[in-house]
Amino acid sequence: MAENAHDPGMSRLAAEPWLYFFLSHAHVKPHHLIDDDPGRLVMTFFRDLCQHLMQMTNCPGGELPGYVDLSMRSGTEWDPEIKRALGVCRAFVPLYGPRYFASEYCAMEWGAFSHREQLHRKASTVSSTQRAIVPVLWSHFDPGGAPQVARNIQLTSFDMDARYRRIGIYGLLSTKRWDDYDTATYEIARDIVETAELTQIEPCDPSMFDSIENPFQGTIEVGP
């Protein structure tokens, strides 16, 4: 796309179609009385998804098929790399839980990707309602309590998924339900690939995310 040519970072990422997914999650600030890293299990899940996608796609060796940000951010400023990843990833993977829809950062990420979806639909000659969003149940959470924009997006379903739907990926990892976790992670990875191949969402210039509509509340002015 011509509008991306002026941004070297965007051009580099746009030329890397193996960035299949952006993992969006609510960051948890660590507490000095708790030794465990709050982002540890998120990273475990991210790595396992990437391992599956490395086998399911032609992602080159030495490259990651996904993106996750584990830094603790302040204000509404984004690292440019986050915006670039949102501008080129082929699917958006939000981790649903009580914290997710209360997080301004998650709203910014969802809003940015949704804006990109809208641009893609406007430019496309094929009418489709298929979303490039693959939600994941992270912890015990009723999806019916999600904002309206998220209620019509289906969770990945598979045989014997009752425990996953009850306690989520975090619950499966925490209680060491390895068989359930392995099955859920594999099926979610497969859903990501199928969604990416079906939607074929085009990259966009990340500067379009500088002012976006918060899909959970209102408008957010995003810092550079």
UniProtKB/TrEMBL annotation:
SUPFAM superfamilies: Toll/Interleukin receptor TIR domain. GO terms for biological process: signal transduction. InterPro entries: FxsC_N, TIR_dom, Toll_tir_struct_dom_sf. Residues 68-158 form the TIR domain. This is TIR domain-containing protein. It comes from Nonomuraea soli.
